[in-house]
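As a warm-up, study this chain.
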Amino acid sequence: MRRIILAALLCSSALVFGIDHAGAAGARPRILTRAEWGADENLLYTDTKEPKPAETFVPADEDKVVPERVKNCEEAQRKYPTEFKAARTMTTDASGRKLRWPQSYSSSIRLIVVHHTAQLLKGDARTPLERVRALYQYHAGSLGWGDIGYNYIIDENGQIYEGRAGGDKVVGGHAYCANVGTVGIALIGNFEQEEPTLDQTRSLQWLIDDLANRYGLNLEHNTVFHGKSMPVVVGHRDTVSTACPGYFLFGVLDQIRRNTATGNLSASVKFPPSLDKNYADKTDDRRTLRLRALNLQPDDPTLTPIGDTAVSIRPGGQATVSLLFRAGGMAVQRRARIASVMRSSNRIGIWQQLDKENQRIREEIFAPRLLHEGEVETIRLRFQVPSEPGTYTVDIGPVTFTLNAEGRRTRSPTGEPVSMSFSASDRVNIPTPGSRRSSSSASSVSSASSVASPLIRIRLTSREKAGQTCTSYDFTDLRLRYRGDITCQMIAGKAALIDELPLEDYIAGLGEEPDTEPYEKQRAFAIAARSYAVFYLDAEHRKFPGMPYDGDDSPATFQLYQGKYAERTNPQWVKAVASTTGQVLTKNGAIIKAAYFSSDDGRTRTPAENGWNNFPFAEVFSSKDDPWCKGLPMAGHGVGMSGCGAKAQATEGKKAEQILEYYYAGTKVEQLAQ
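Now compare it with the structure written out below.
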């Protein structure tokens, strides 16, 4: 029998998510229970026959290329089988409800493993509680694990949260091959780039002390785990090849161990030196200190997989994989070649995330940024397999990925690999696959769960300046402000800037519904705005006929597009867009021109009243009572959904779908066809 061990390499790919609570010096913080932080316990249960755990380790077949970490885990299981044996496993709760992720229990706890969640706190406007709930929703719901992988989470204010359900000694999914017999603690933040807060480190010290007392751990001595002598408190990277828990947190683990062992739980720590841009000019002492903090030696560069290398994909479908690259004894320049690429079929599409965009890869992958000696970086790739079922392989340097194309074929209008976009902040790991725009596909819909993201071309009129030529613009600055591919061409004697990008990235960059508005109103406007934009992608409905763009960034003529600025300043809007990915309003299977406006005087107007003749599906836009707006001035054309009415209905507790149903009677919310 093959042993299956629940595991999850959370640190390199997890979203971040935290509660307003300050851990005062010397105070013993309280652990918020799942009920107190609002965990949706319905996510724990399933009616399916095969629950999906966070990650499974299955010994590889002997005739396949086996990653080193898999070999090490297999060897550890052979040598120390009792350390992998759970004391008991619960597949249902006390009432008999079936758990999506069965709860196994360790017979004893040997290690405390420290993680970071790897997402920057800087620029994230959400409250800590919102981030914790989002992390849970992502692990349990979006990834289908059925629960969160960590046993505990600590936010930037020092508040501690109960993570994985099940109580004492429940096995988490946080450290590949090292989940049984361990407790996983994740601090919210990306400690490769930022330092943990004082409240976080103090709460971590208190929690370690509490766990040590509970499980009888001696913090002054090493323990033997899988045949290796190591401290009781370790970083994730001590158990598997990963950057987690980040340079700054890993660099102070010795101090945290010492503070907890001596009972000095309110003591602060001194972080290792920052890796600033002038690092190369610093002394050898700093370089030695940094390498020691990272537990690395200045040797040859390495490339190792994060997660399984065997991937199951529907024929024609896509999957994301990650690798960990470590620079060797020399710095690696940005965009330097770091590994060759070989594929068993030229029809396998490969993209690499570079500069937060997704770029097509041919024969090599590249360093996404300047890496100093011994520094580590996560390399994110996306594969698309051919539409024929079968087994395909991709070699990325020494790592072989096996892609099993099986099941029902993924629909694609062209049959070619689709362009992809990686997302920002809240939209991390939410793919937006799509195809090149065509009149036949841009306005089609599907009831399937697959989501398309056609490309849209937006003219950046707000960035254009009279008298400028195409060579006058600073494209480096423009690409920092906007996603996609920005080009310039002369139109009617004027240098026109055009941003071509995936539709979902465009919708996320709209500035029409800031975070001062209710979330459900934002969701309603996201669906309406997407419908409006896609309507004009159809060759029969051009907003700017004959022009090499589909819309512009002016709210007077199209929509207010602000690019990355809107994403940074309105993270709740980005979340609303992600929650409605690919959703549009349709009538009789066709996407409607979902007009909307700011306010009216108590009723909406018909297209005819506004002078819009032959308006498509005019019956949808019949005049409707809008009592929530009564007494307000007319602001906008008055056709479709009003901002004041949508806001009031959302405040009353209406969902986005209910708001849309009121203003666009007779329509359906459907997915764009892929």
